[in-house]
User: Fold these one by one.
Assistant:
Number 1:
Amino acid sequence: MNRNEILSKIDELSKCKNFLEILGLLVAKNINGKVKDIGYEDYKRLLSYKEISHLSGFYLKNRNNKSNTELDTESTADQIHKLMDSLHFTFFSNDEKSFDPSKIEREMLLHETIFYSGGDAHDFQFVELARYKYQNDRGWIKKHKGFDIYNAYDNYMVIRSLMDFIMNIRHQHANPSNVLTLNKDNPIFKRNPDIKQLIEAFAIQENEVVNEFFFNIGDYNEFLVRPIFIIDNYYVILMPYQLAEAVFNNPFYWMNKDKIYSSKALKNRGGMAENMVFQMLTEKYGDRYIFKNVLLKKNSTTTISDIDILMLFEEIAVIFQVKSKRLTENSKKGDLKSIKIDFEKAIKAAHKQALTCKEAIRKKEYNSNSSKNLPDLKNVKEVYSICLLLDEYPGKTSHVRIIMEGEPDKPIVISAFDLDIILRHLPTKVDFTKYLIFRYKNRDRLVAASERAFLGGYLFNGDEINNNINDRPIILDEDHSQYFDRLMFGKHLAENRSKFLEALKDIERNDRCFCESGLKYKKCCMQNFDGRLSP
Ligand SMILES: [Zn+2]
């Protein structure tokens, strides 16, 4: 089957009466698993967030146009899983049967990695960093969308904890498609109406027509923008992760549509990327020797270039060039020319600027008196640079490897989310620079799909890699990044317990139970809930 045939088949199947149930089963099997399984799944066999989102896109397209046919839930879910696997092959050949792994061309991987490389970010990072991202837009968001971006992290975490509780404790043996719904009258909203507002802002109403033209990979999918939908008196939250991502991405687009506010939103976005990175670095490493918007000038009239963030540590200077460019729609659809143009604008441009600055510092070509925010660089012996992308740019690490193959000085490209993880695991500037030196030294030798995998390789096998002197590439597989998934998830689960318990405080004996069992609280979790969120 070619791509069109596969997608047509899925489109057709998604019209069945019980498709939501089938989708729920796929989510339960592939995404919202048990807490104890996190980070241990064989990632190659599971459908990803993006694949499930694509299937959800079909659900939304056809939900008001359903047939009366009811399909067997288990076997149809299996059939769809297989169809999605076949779809993966279409990135490399016209049909699965003629697929030959030795014939994969590097350019084919450019589109494949955009759709299939795992998300760069953990869900809590999206909601946490959204607060930095929209710190100057808090008022607009509250007024127009009803939720407070400052509390979005806490509120999201209560939703997430509740979902984890329902999935892992309360309904361990229940039908998985019943697991992912919250009644609008869930008593958890009593103490925190803001949680309900957050959900409402990202919910699609029952009678709305969406995704009319949705079909192919990269087509506009409302599910990515508003991942919650309403059925009767219920919110269906298939994947809390998608909600977190939408909290980070959407407000900017909402504000852009507001004719009166859009210019202010754009202005706020302008300096925001640098500010955000500056804040992240200084909160961790202190504000001495970290500088923002440093201008390098040849003399009082000629500017060489500017550095977004400059960090000094003894004889080492680290240049951060920050961009907030996202992949365009055409790139997501697989247009190679667009992919290369996006790469040029987001990554190569930042890299080129960094190289110019590096050169000027190394050769001492700048005039130290001509710019007032220029720190003393006379002791600097080594200069490193990092290209930092504010938003997710799926496949970026592979794109650097493929598009810049053979070029001598390849950039290190990370996202704000990568930086967040790096800062959490490298507590001092010394640790940070050591990692950077390792990364540079092994730039061409190490192959990984994400920055987290590089960091994992460094933390757990760094010495081994350094001592391994042959030039053969070392592949850091996803096990290196899954470590962080387990660690971060466990840490957050523990941290959120108190927030979750706090949210339960106003529930009264005769309220319906928060766990969605349909029973009264006094007859349900009031008796046996011991505050644990996972078994
Ligand atoms: Zn209960």
Note: The pocket of zinc ion is lined by residues 170, 513, 515, 517, 524-525 (CB under 6 Å).
Number 2:
Amino acid sequence: MHPLARIPRDLFVCLAPPRCPGCDQRLSPSEPAGFCVVCAPLIEEARFGSACFEYGGPLAEAVRALKYLGRWRVAEYLGGLMVPRALRLYRGRVDAVVPIPLHRKRLRTRGYNQAELLARPVARMLRVPVRRGLLERVKAGRPQVGVGRSERALALRGAFAATESGWPPRVLILDDVRTTGATLDAATAAIKAAQPVTLHRLTLAVTVADDVS
Ligand SMILES: [Zn+2]
């Protein structure tokens, strides 16, 4: 038995009481990890097929905490929230989950790829592997928030490179937030150029701007 396994869970809770990823309030020990009772009802399911939730409110805060405040543990919970839609849409229909990769410089500074962490619970429940290394981000930088559809597409042209072989026939590409879809489009183009793969998409959240076209 690992020595830490003998430490009661309550002690961990005392040392690092779980906080709501939406408002950072401490959760009471009786509350399950995740959004608090105030934040939870504010999470809106997306009408969009391949995105799970509308981006905004507590969910946006949770994504910011995950990406910019080093709260990587939030990903297990957020990824878990993606599971029902993932199962509904893709159970038995994909052979692997490929998270949208970060550029290696960004990965070094952040320490983890949030899309990969989100992909883990999804892949586990779909009973397929998370495959990384098939797709690489070769161009650093993300388009600025607020730039238009065509600028984003332009900024992301050639952003990804896919390996020439080793792709399973049906792949679910997964990302955290979808804005115009330019990131997923650029990844799709790179993969399709490498191998004829059936691609599906899933994102945690979609920004409202995406509905305006
Ligand atoms: Zn909260």
Note: The chain has one domain: 17-210.
Number 3:
Amino acid sequence: MGDSLDRSVPRERIEDLERPALDDRSYRIVTLPNKLEVLLIHDPNTDKSSAALDVNVGSFSDAEDMPGIAHAVEHLLFMGTKKYPEENNYNKYLTSHSGHSNAYTASTSTNYYFELASKHSTPTSSTSPSPNATQENLSITKEQSPLWGALDRFGQFFICPLFLEDTVDREIRAVDSENKKNLQADTWRLHQLNKNLSNPAHPYNHFSTGNWTTLHDEPLARGVQIREEFMKFHEQHYSANRMKLVVLGLENLDTLEEWVEEIFSEIPNKNLPRKRWDDVALYTEKELLIQTFARPVFESRTLEISFLYRDEEEMYESHPSRYLSHLIGHEGPGSILSYIKAKGWANGLGAGGSSLCPGSGLFNINVKLTEDGLKHYQEIVKIIFQYIALVREREPQKWIVDEQIGMSKVEFRFRQKSPPSRTTSGLAAIMQKPYERKQLLSAPAVIKTFDAELISQAMSYLRPDNFRFMLVSQEFPGDWDKKEKWYGTEYKTEKIPEDFLQEVKAAFEAKERPSELLLPHKNEFIPNRLEVEKKEIEQPLKAPKLIRNDDSVRLWWKKDDQYWVPKANVSIHFRTPMAHLTPRTAVMATLYRELVNDALVEYSYDADISGLVYEFSNHSTGLSVSVQGYNDKLHVLLEKVLVQIRDLDVHEDRFKIIHDRISRSFRNWDFGQPFHQVGTYSRWFRTDSSCMIEDLAKELEGVTAQDVQQFFPQVLAQCHIEILCHGNLYKEEALKITDLVEKTIKPRTLPPNQWPVKRCLILPSGSNFIYERQLRDPANINHCIEYTLYLGNRMDPVLRAKQLLIGQMTDEPVFNQLRTIEQLGYVVFSGPTAGITYAGYRILIQSEKDCRYLEGRIEHFLTSFEKTIDEMNEDDFEKHKGAVISKRQEKLKNLGQEGNRFWNHIFSDAYDFLQAETDVENIAPLTKDQMKEFFMHYISPSSPRRAKLSVHLIAQKQAKEPTLDEKKTKLSTVLTTICKAEEVVSNNDALKPRIDAISSEADISSAISTHLKDDLQLSTEQVDKIADEAMAALGLANAGLPGEVVPADETMTCTGMQGGHAKEPVLITDVHAWKAGLQMSAGVRPVRNLEEFMEDTAKL
Ligand SMILES: [Zn+2]
């Protein structure tokens, strides 16, 4: 132990935190001399370590004239530190240890976190089993632990950040691009509108993301030194006493404490106060009693009622607002939702209180309206007030709170682990709250006491003189006369008309109200039987057992042998081609699914709030039902769901509502984020049968309630049933559940030769296709490309190993080149992509630059990567292997994750339960030469044999083209960034006159080259590379694509396609003809004989 733990200096150590029953972590809270409060977590079984630091400053502290500054500082903090000046040093370190990092800026806090492998992983050492019970007694040295290096890099951000000059503009651009990504998203738009309509004196009113104008142009115009301003913000608001640090590792608490002390004691403490906003109201009289009508991008209809409420942070023993949200948000019989749903006015309802900051809070009620509901919104407001009056006229009901207390305790007691970075990031934020330290884990979740007084106070806020509402719809009222400043949302706002307000008051005060409105009845789903029979297990089973396999049913079962929670998962697949024969049957199956779910809302609500949920879904190979949660009453819910599935009575009125809801979701689909849409297109090209939304939308129009009523019994009439029972269930229970399924549905058997075969289309070797499509949202400015290379059949384990490894090897370089250096856009993804039998590699970019330009930059990157592989040393190569292996070996954190993994392998038809192990075995022996060969064959643009398809989604609106002056300004920062990445010393003094001399766009290229050649004396090869990257970052590089792409000759046969078109891209125009020309892969088959999974009969 180091001297720093000298016990002669008394330090308070809080270790006895209230914790879940099965939590095997140990906790310690200490405060360092600089007043940094730290929570240390030792987890003897973790394979990932993590740390998070939360600073009690956020966008509420933005300067009035520089909205977004807190967010920009969050971005810039990572740009180099005194100790580790290289700007991507931190991420490189994390990536080489299978790690990642992230950060977010909230209203009153900024949260930074990372996660990485707990141990150094080398392919040789990692194949031996890792759990090691004696680990906690050994102290781990800094060199042995990847965590130490990460903590040291992380800590420097708060000790001596450099805010590197040349990264400032670039990070402001990243913020700008992040904001542009959100511009067309309704959640952001409506949230901001609500903010803008609050008291201008409250910081909630402001715009928090920031953009190029607020963070760059305007400050510059005012003569502000931007970087200085960021540093000043940091200087003013960041202080050790405002920070909370959480570190989770394999190391014991003393070691962690010593490390944390050594690194984080250096953070300066400025003794800054915790900010509060007590004396400024969120809504003043001016902002209350207003009605706002807003027009969404999506075709959605919602009514949101907001009450000015209070901040309940200090009331965590009783959580009073949960009494109100429980009753108002209830969905069972007697509830508001049940009543307005029966009238055909609503599809959903939610309610809840939120503390916005110390000193302010809101209570919101949100209703999803039907078309009819929109017409009756005023009546809905009145009904809500009638229900509130019903709640308020009674004393706070102790039995209701007792139910909540009981359930919250059960949930906490059996809470399972979540991933390390979620744990640390979440707890660091929670530590900012005034919770008693021993209750840090439990306080946010558990209701401890019934406090009638506090509940009565809470109820007093829900009054007709203390609210306002917003109605969101594309149809009504149509005369929006204003535009919100930051997102451009059209809206109209005015005082609630006096006559309507009087009606609301009358409804609230009347003793008469609809007899349908009632308090909920006792919840029968609260679990009582919570026993788990725990046994000593040497090695948990890695696969479920096959305990029944006949013509009708295949049943898989595994009794939980490692998580010991009183929970279970039951998943059922009704296998039949009927649900997806044509777009029409697919649409009918979708309507059926939604109608069943709709019919179960009231019944399943009690189960839902008691930790028991079900899901019913349709897909290309049939229908599925799953039930998950406490096993005590699981069969009760399952039976009800099955009966509903069998006996659904399609009512005309509900059908109309559901039909409208689906039809809107289809219409909304192509207004979504382009990078969300693009995957659907890529998948469309991978299989024969998948259909696009537009095909489904066409079919939907003609389908009637009667059609669905006649259709669904046909789906269930003949099918094969496959079931997984997993968790706290004995074999007899699994068999019983299976009987229940069979007896309830009673399908005829479907012969195995009729089971749908899962397979994909094969992209031929030597092909190069482009599919172009214009995006429908006219206001969207972001293009999106998904560039995919087909690698082969995913069932081939060696190929899959190479696919995973190449994904890891290119991960950081893609991001660094295309996002950081070339600044193509905020959304840049790369890595393996998989279909059923499809193994691919893809790069996805969402950008204001056009798709052909992006295509060129991707090819340019891939070409340059050949050299990167050549130059990669063996050590780095082994690190990459280690990183993928450790990802594949990552432990499952809870019962749900294990159940999902089993079900995925069953549902895929491959039953490859040991896939992770197989992958590790196949990655370990891979050599650099093999990877180079793989890359040169399947990925390199120079390969005549690779198979490529890219989808280009083209925005209608053009982003504003930067002026020559803007490009010139950008050029100097761009060059500094690239020179640094290329390890070349830049020379801004020599560069400046060259930039000044540029008088037209045509001069830029030669100015760069001359500067690199004459001023920096670089070799021709370096000059070419840097010049090209600089031109790319300015959006001026040669796209490398012909202006006109040749349309595909759809009559071309497969062999025709193989004929060496690899160089010139071919445009897909007729998708059907194109698909018809492709061959199919072999279908998925079990990787092992299923008999191997049968239980050893001798043991029975
Ligand atoms: Zn950000």
Note: The first strand starts at residue 26 and ends at 31.
